[in-house]
UniProtKB/TrEMBL annotation:
Matching HAMAP family: Transaldolase_3b (MF_00494)
Name this protein carries in UniProt: Probable transaldolase
Active-site residues, record numbering mapped to chain: 83 (schiff-base intermediate with substrate)
Compartment list: Cytoplasm
Gene behind the chain: fsa
Keyword Transferase: yes
Organism: Parvularcula maris
GO biological process, one term: ketone catabolic process
Enzyme class: transferase
Keyword Cytoplasm: yes
Alphabetized InterPro entries for the sequence: Aldolase_TIM, TAL/FSA, Transaldolase_3B, Transaldolase_3B/F6P_aldolase, Transaldolase_AS, TSA/FSA_arc/bac
Pathway entry: Carbohydrate degradation; pentose phosphate pathway; D-glyceraldehyde 3-phosphate and beta-D-fructose 6-phosphate from D-ribose 5-phosphate and D-xylulose 5-phosphate (non-oxidative stage): step 2/3
Main location per the UniProt record: cytoplasm
Length: 217
């Protein structure tokens, strides 16, 4: 499973890329608003950090305008993926963009039926929102399994991009269920590594090694 970072904060993103474990980035209008910077500038800056996919979301809700905005965004860099909402207009735009060879990420997916429609429209990625379903008292993760089964049974190549990830458990479960990618907030990415027993174990090893008075080099 590939790792994308779900942020428009270029400082956080740059730090995450230094690990060598990050394959791409996703943004959305809320993350852009939080960053408080010019949208296209931010996307250009991110695309300079990576050759991996960088999702940039259209702002319009009407297909013709979405297509125009999507084309403009795709001109920023060759690795821009145009993010489109899961509406009829979004699917029309998705079909048009995929016919032009522009990668798309269909977002705000909450059912397997929606994911099926996005695949039929030629989406490169589908973004099921796990955390927002959990917030409603539903099992968000079940959606990942359903979409995986549907795409495999029906032989769709659309990649499942698990989104709205709230913690390390979401990441692990998405991987076990066969998601192709998880887009992870920077805080959760850091939390994936942390374990108190790792810290304590290392601290003991360092202390004991120093006690030997030896040097490897
Ligand atoms: O970028 C889409 C998605 O990951 C948003 O997550 O936490 O706002 O539900 P969240």
């Amino acid at each position: 499973m590939r790792i994308f970072i779900d942020t428009a904060d270029t400082n956080e993103l740059r730090e995450a890329f230094t690990t060598g474990l990050v394959d791409g980035c996703t943004t959305n209008p809320s993350l852009i608003a939080k960053a408080g910077r010019d949208f296209k500038e931010v996307i250009a800056e991110i695309c300079e950090m990576t050759d991996g996919p960088v999702s940039a979301e259209v702002a319009s809700t009407e297909a013709d305008m979405m297509i125009k905005e999507g084309k403009r965004l795709s001109e920023i860099a060759s690795n821009v993926v145009v993010k489109l909402p899961l509406t009829w207009d979004g699917l029309k735009a998705c079909r048009a963009m995929s016919e032009e060879g522009i990668d798309t990420n269909v977002t705000l997916c909450f059912t397997a039926a929606q994911a099926w429609l996005a695949a039929k429209a030629g989406a490169t990625y589908i973004s099921p929102f796990i955390g927002r379903l959990d917030d409603l008292g539903q099992q968000g993760m079940e959606l990942i399994g359903e979409i995986r089964a549907l795409y495999d049974t029906q032989d769709y190549q659309t990649q499942i991009l698990a989104a709205s990830i709230r913690g390390p458990l979401h990441v692990k479960e998405a991987a076990l269920l066969g998601a192709d990618v998880a887009t992870i907030p920077p805080k959760v990415f850091k939390a994936l590594l942390n374990h108190p027993l790792t810290d304590k174990g290392l601290s003991d090893f360092v202390k004991d090694w120093q006690g030997t008075g030896q040097s490897i080099l």
